[in-house]
Write a structure and sequence with these properties.
With 532 residues, this protein is an alpha/beta fold. Helix content is 28%, strand content 18%.
Length: 532
């Protein structure tokens, strides 16, 4: 960083990410007017908004524009030192080829294990650990969503108070299940996503399904034998010589249902059996290695890669040292840094798996005739991010510096610890949904522009990139990483703060703002298969 004066003063401040960068971002709230002179002697020739780039030197037409020591664009016309460098002045570089990439070439020195850190969690029959004790009601098709929602509201008001050890009841609503090409090869993605969400660690191994009856996604196809963990003898079905978990289904088209309230009462009756078992569970002390943390960013700005995401990256390294699982995602937001990822792969096989996921998504975008540049939103650009290359560089740093030990395909469950690349689209809601399916029990979400994103199924820790946002949204942001740009805290200090907050939130000792306000976004299944 340059000009590290305290940003709470009127002193002009810009921030660079690498000594070879020829642009920096303006850090001051509200931006800076033309004529402002920085301590370095650089003078602004025009007003530059906060988080937007200023040219540190004269840049010729066609010249490289570097940030993070990466070429984020080429100048469309000469740019004078002190000028505002925005997206209309840049030509975006071509995407990095997936051929000839560095494969497992970076071998970070081993970091000492981080021992002695624990949290209070709920141990599940399959050995996983939940940070919450929630009854989730799975739906096979959108047609039952209204009935299920009505029943869930009654369960919350009439039944849940009787079971104080159960945190919540949630309906896993989605738009899938019928009117789709259910036998298409890519249909496996939404099906396994919904299946694995139903088995998320925060749901205690209790699986309850509401079905319409005539849908394409039949309950047995969603949850085939062997997928549900055995809870105790009460959910065991006799299948000959072996025991299997019984699928608990309420089918609304069953002849036994006479009228709407009959359906609702059936759902409530079945739910109470699950509530009784969940209520008998108690938190126990478990090592921090049982955390499965999904990291994500949304409403990003140019500060995301300066404050919040680097602090999350430092925290990710702490979690990996503690033996935990960390998942980073968002294909289009890391695609332009694929060489950085394949070089950090722990093995050539992991690198090749990342390349396969990127190639698959490249083909998916090509089929839809969508360019990767479509990722950068109007809000991203207003927040100083000129294009997807610049956005990708700030997004990747959430992953920290640990070796990437595995890759999780869309909808699959994570089956190893360490730093994992979990392939998801960049959409906040699809990414969160797929990370839930992968097994996350705690979520970290960074934002610069601000978004009230939250999930009912897992605690979401919200991290602000700027102090201005943290002040304005004081009852929505859990961590203010903007203090890093202000000179009030270091990346390491904020990273440790997040790590300790994770243990408190995972233990139920603290609730996030999203939990307190019950700010919950809908789940969105990624469905690349055709619709019929």
């Amino acid at each position: 960083m340059n000009d590290t004066a305290d940003a709470v003063t009127a002193a002009p401040l810009y921030i660079t990410m690498h000594e070879r960068d020829n642009v920096a971002i303006v850090a001051n709230d509200g931006g800076l007017p033309a004529g402002t002179v920085f301590p370095s002697g650089l003078a602004l020739v025009e007003k530059v908004p906060q988080a937007h780039k200023v040219a540190l030197v004269d840049i010729a037409e066609g010249g490289e524009i570097r940030r993070y020591d990466v070429v984020i664009g080429y100048a469309l016309k000469p740019i004078a030192a002190g000028s505002w460098v925005h997206e209309r002045l840049l030509r975006m570089p071509a995407a990095r080829s997936l051929e000839g990439l560095p494969i497992a070439t970076v071998k970070p020195p081993p970091q000492p294990a981080l021992e002695g850190y624990t949290f209070e969690g709920f141990r599940n029959p399959d050995g996983s650990v939940g940070t919450r004790n929630i009854l989730a009601i799975t739906q096979t098709v959108q047609c039952v969503a209204g009935v299920t929602d009505f029943a869930v509201q009654r369960i919350k008001s009439e039944l849940l108070p009787k079971y104080p050890n159960v945190d919540d009841v949630v309906a896993l609503e989605h738009g899938y299940g019928c009117g789709v090409a259910i036998d298409a090869p890519d249909a496996i993605v939404p099906i396994r996503t919904l299946r694995n969400i139903s088995l998320n660690p925060n749901f205690g191994g209790e699986v309850m399904v509401v079905s319409l009856g005539c849908e394409k996604l039949q309950p047995e196809r969603l949850m085939p034998p062997g997928t549900i963990p055995l809870v105790d003898e009460r959910n065991v079905a006799d299948v000959g010589d072996s025991a299997d978990a019984k699928l608990d289904v309420v089918c609304l088209q069953d002849d036994a249902h006479v009228g709407f309230m009959s359906m609702v009462q059936s759902i409530m009756r079945q739910a109470e059996e699950h509530l009784e078992r969940l209520n008998a569970r108690r938190r126990e002390t478990v090592p921090a290695s049982e955390l499965v943390v999904g990291v994500q960013c949304g409403g990003s700005d140019a500060f995301s890669g300066v404050t919040a995401n680097p602090a999350v990256g430092f925290c990710s390294d702490l979690l990996v040292r503690a033996g935990a699982t960390v998942m980073f995602s968002e294909v289009t937001e890391v695609r332009d840094g694929i060489d950085q990822l394949t070089s950090r792969a722990s093995t050539p096989e992991v690198a090749e798996a990342m390349i396969r996921e990127m190639a698959w998504y490249d083909a998916y975008l090509d089929r839809g005739r969508v360019d990767r540049s479509a990722n950068t939103t109007p809000g991203n650009k207003k927040g100083g991010l000129s294009n997807i290359v610049e956005k990708a560089m700030g997004s990747i740093v959430k992953s920290g510096s640990s070796p990437i030990s595995g890759v999780v395909a869309p909808g699959e469950k994570a089956r190893q610890k360490g730093l994992l690349y979990t392939a998801t689209p960049a959409s906040d809601f699809i990414c969160g949904t797929l990370q839930l399916a992968a097994g996350m029990n705690l979520h970290v979400f960074t934002t610069g522009r601000g978004t009230p994103y939250g999930l009912a199924q897992v605690p979401v820790i919200k991290v602000a990139t700027r102090s201005d946002l943290a002040r304005r949204w004081h009852d929505l942001m859990d961590v203010n990483a903007g203090r890093i740009a202000d000179g009030q805290a270091t990346i390491e200090e904020v990273g440790w703060e997040m790590f300790r907050l994770m243990l408190d939130v995972a233990s139920g000792r603290k609730k996030t703002w999203a939990e307190q306000w019950k700010l919950h976004n809908a789940l969105v299944l990624f469905n690349p298969a055709p619709v019929t």
